Amino acid sequence: MSTSGPLRKREPTASGDVARAGFPPFAAVVAIALASGVWLLAVAAFGPTVPAVLLAPGVLLAAAAGATLFGAAALCFPRAIAGLVVLVAFGLSISFRIREQGETGLDLQNGIKLMVWLLLPVIAFLNARRIAFCLRDPLVATMALYAAIAVASTAWSPIPAYTGASALGLSSYLLLACLAAATSGEAALLRLLIFTLVTYALLTLASAVLLPQMAWMLPAGGGDTTLRLQGLSGHPNVLGEQMAVLVTLSVIARREGVIGRPAFLVGIASGFPILIGTESRTTLFAVIVSWGIVAARQRKLLLPVVCAMGLLAAMAILSVALGYEPVPKDLLATVSRSGSLSELTTLTGRTDLWEVAVELIGARPLHGWGFNGTEALFVANVGRGFVGDPVNAHNMYLQSALSLGLVGSLPGFAVLAILIGRMIRVPDPTRDQFVLLVLFIGLAEVGIFATPTLLTLVFFMFLAFEALNAPSPAMRSPFRRTGDAMP
Questions:
Q1: How far apart are the first and last CA of the chain?
Q2: 11: alpha, beta or left? (left if phi > 0; alpha if psi -120 to 50)
Q3: Helix (H, G, I), strand (E, B) or coil at 404
C-alpha cells in the first residue's frame, strides 16, 4: 500500500476466463432443471402432508445458486470471488439462532459455516498459482503458520470437532483474503466491503423496528437496565465489531479517495448510531482512538497529544496518591450500564475472566487447550454468580495463549509485532488504522484469535494487501495489471 495518495487499482486477473464464460450459466440452468424435476416428483409422492416439501424449491434454488457461485469462483471469475467475499461478510455475519453457553454442537447455522469453510480451501487450491506469491510473503506465511498450529491443536483439544472447524475457518478466511486481493485489488475490495456492510447496517436498523424481540438484547441482570442493539448478529458485541469495521473502512476509503463524500457519510451515518446502540464501549473506544492516532500523526500532532495524555495520567495518579479523586465516583458510576462503579473497575467482569484464563494457561502453558476450545472450561470455572457471557477470555492475547499455548501463539504475536514495527518504521495510514483497531478491540474481545468473524477476514485482507505491494519483484503477484478491478 502506498503511504500517500489513492490506493493502486487493478483489473481482474483471470486470463483465459473468456473461453469458459458460458459454463456457469449452463451449469445453473441444468441444476435448476434437475432441482425442479426432483421437487415435482416429491410433491407428487408426498403432497402437502409434508410441509418441508413445499419449501424445497427455495432450498434447491439456493443450493443451485451456491453451486454456481462456488463453481465460478473455482474457475477464478473475479465477480464470483467477490461474491464469496459478500457471502462471508454478509451471510455468515447473520445469526438466526440462540446458542447456549458452552454449546458447541453442530446445528444448521454451524453447518452452513462449515460447508463454506470446507469449500474455500478447495477453491484456493484450484487457484494456487494465483495466490502463491501471497503465501510466500513473510507476514502472510507467519499467519499461515499460526493457522496450521490451530489445525494441529485439534489433536489435544477437549472438543476436537469444534476446534477443527474453527481452525479450518481461520485458514479458509486467510486463503479467501489472498485470492480476493489478487483478483480485485485494494480499492475494489474496500468499496465492495463498504457497500455490503452499509446494506447490512440498514437491515439492522430495520430489524430494530420490525423485529424488536430479536434485534434488542434484554438487560443481563445484576442491576443492568440497558437495552442493547444486537440486530441480526446474535450479540451486541459482535454487531459492534461489525459496525467498527464499517466505520473504519469508510474513513480509510474516503481518505484514500476510493469512495466519494456521499458514500462516506452514508457509511458513518449508518455505522456510528448502531455502534452506539450496541453499548460496546471498548469497540467504540477502539474506533475513535485508532482514527485519532492516525489523524494526529498525519498532522504531526501525535507527540503533543501523547505528551498531553501522559501529563493528565500522571496528574490523576498523583491525585489518587494524595487521597483525592480526579473524577467523582458518582460521575463514573453513571457511565456504567448498571450504575455501579465496580462494573468499570472490573471492565464488566472481564478481570474475573482474565483470572480464570491465567489459571488455565498455567495448567497448559506450552500447547494450550486447543484453538477456540475453551468455552466449556470458562463456563465451568467462572462460578454461578457471573453476569455476562463467560465463553472466552474477552482478551485476544490471553485467548491465544490459552488456546495454543505460549509457544503456539508465537507466530500470531509475531504478525502483530511485525505490523507494529512497520507502523513505526514505514507509516501507512490505511494499514495502520485497521491494525490499531484490531489491537485495541483485542484488549476486551477475542478479536482475530478465536471463532473467525468479519474482523478476521478484513484483517487478513490487509495482510494480503501488504503482500500485493511487496517491494521485492519476486514477491509480487505475476497477475497484477494497472486499471480498476471492479468486482
A1: 19
A2: beta
A3: helix
Residue type, 247: V
Phi, psi at 158, each rounded to 5°:
-70, -20
φ and ψ at residue 101, rounded to 5 degrees: -60, 130
Buried b / exposed e across 288-316, counting CB within 10 Å, b at 16+? eebbebbbebeeeeeeeeeeeeeeeeeee
For residue range 327-368, what is the model confidence (pLDDT) as tens digits? 665 555 555 555 554 555 556 668 888 888 999 999 999 999
pTM of the prediction?
0.84
Nearest alpha-carbon partner for 88 in 214, 8, 189? 189
What DSSP assignment string belongs to 11-73? ----TT-GGGTTHHHHHHHHHHHHHHHHHHHHHHHHGGGSHHHHHHHHHHHHHHHHHHHHHHH
Q: What is the radius of gyration, based on Cα positions, of the chain?
A: 24
Distant-in-sequence, close-in-space partners of 263: CB < 8 Å, separation ≥ 6: 194, 250, 253, 254
Report d(CA 43, CA 38) in Å as an integer. Answer: 9
Contact partners, residue 86, CB within 8 Å, separation at least 6: 192, 196
Distance CA 378, CA 403 (A): 12
SS3 229: strand
